[in-house]
Write a structure and sequence with these properties.
The protein is mainly alpha-helical and about 90 residues long. It has one domain. The chain is built from four helices and no strands. Helix 1 packs antiparallel against helix 2 and helix 2 packs antiparallel against helix 4. The longest helix is centred in the N-terminal third of the chain and has 26 residues. Keywords: Membrane, Transmembrane, Transmembrane helix. Pfam families: DUF8044 (PF26161). InterPro entries: DUF8044.
């Protein structure tokens, strides 16, 4: 049962990422940053949609570290974008 749930999670994430690549390429806006952000959103959605009600398997407990790393990457992307928009006089370096 645990392997079936795990594979359901993996299939859902892979399907989300393939749909993201297809959608972004059809819109002509495929970039690493957008793919990363959309994949992170997919990871959060698939994690919630496949969450069991009663028991929390060990592999699901380890997902929090992957989600934390993804959120750190998202914060880096947002910070970099904000710094790009600021005028050069604001940042002394």
């Amino acid at each position: 049962m645990a392997t079936q749930r795990r594979m359901q999670f993996v299939h859902g994430q892979v399907a989300w990422m393939l749909a993201t690549v297809l959608g972004l390429s059809l819109l002509g806006s495929l970039s690493y940053e957008l793919f990363f952000v959309c994949s992170l959103i997919g990871l959060l959605v698939v994690t919630e949609l496949t969450a069991p009600f009663t028991v929390r398997p060990e592999w699901r407990r380890r997902l929090k570290w992957l989600i934390l790393a993804g959120l750190c990457g998202f914060a880096y992307i947002v910070g970099r974008r904000i710094l790009e928009m600021l005028p050069p006089e604001v940042i002394p370096w």
